[in-house]
Design goal:
Two copies of one chain form a homodimer. Chain A has 129 residues and is mainly α. Chain A is 67% helix and 3% strand. The termini of chain A are far apart. In chain A, 26% of the residues are buried. The first copy, chain A, binds a DNA duplex (30 and 30 nucleotides) through residues 2-4, 13-16, 18-19, 23, 33-36, 53, 58-60.
DNA sequence: TCTTGACCTTCCATCTGATGGAACCTCTAT
DNA sequence: ATAGAGGTTCCATCAGATGGAAGGTCAAGA
């Protein structure tokens, strides 16, 4: 399978697939012409990567998950730990964003948004000293 | 004022302050010894930047906001537009994260997290083909 | 006066996670 | 033979800093 087909079937851009090979996440074989020759298992891993990345797992998380995925004797606790840690990070990020949103929404609704120069948004950003 | 004091008073690391000078957000004067000599107005701008960045505004947003901030004749509508656009981005990001969180939380709670190799998390990540 | 240590300088490398583009090779169909 | 659709490598770039090396400066104490 050439990179184009793998790209279509995995949903990942060819650039990204080459990048993932570069950083050692996959090791496709090479044909005589120098083209990457992907096996079904490579495609499978790439699809796995695509979904894990879409869930916000970092590349290093993905590397660990792939290792665990290929380790038939791993404990599910190891995987769960990675996922739980990630869930905590997501919750933190959510809390931050929600606070940001609240502050910003308040400022936006306080701002007349007309042609006058008075602007509560700038006033707020500059007033805390 | 040297960079150390500005760092303390603005809450920004010295590295970051140098970086902000580098990309043209501030233009502190220089003392005879080559040290950066910050005016109160520089400190003010840096604090402004710190707060805007904390609200998730991009550096380019900040550049625009600073320009508007210094333009006594700007319309508040210009500022509001930047803030509203940013608010929309935050809402998108929030929706994404919430979906991620829901999926991940479901997987985590489905996973026994014991010594057995069966793991719904990995099963899910690998099953969608 | 000398020295120590805190503080300052620049410059270059590194991080995450790709992505864009140039220059060039290969395969397939006409 | 040639066009064009693929493939290849390598190098640069994006955001937004941050780490570290090598070296200059300043103030205080022995």
């Amino acid at each position: 399978m050439n990179i184009g087909e793998v790209s279509k079937r995995s949903g990942l851009p060819a650039k990204t697939i080459r990048y993932y090979e570069d950083i050692g996440l996959i090791q496709p074989h090479r044909s005589d012409n120098g083209y990457r020759a992907f096996a079904e298992s490579d495609l499978h891993k790439l699809a796995f990567l695509g979904r894990a990345r879409a869930l916000g797992f970092s590349i290093e998380d993905c590397r660990n998950l792939l290792t665990l995925y290929e380790d038939r004797s791993r404990a599910s606790a190891d995987v769960k730990q990675i996922a739980k840690t990630h869930l905590t990070r997501i919750d933190q990020k959510l809390a931050e964003l929600q606070e940001m949103r609240a502050t910003l929404a308040g400022l936006v609704s306080a701002c007349a948004g007309d042609n006058r120069p008075d602007c509560p948004i700038l006033a707020d950003l500059s007033s805390h000293d």
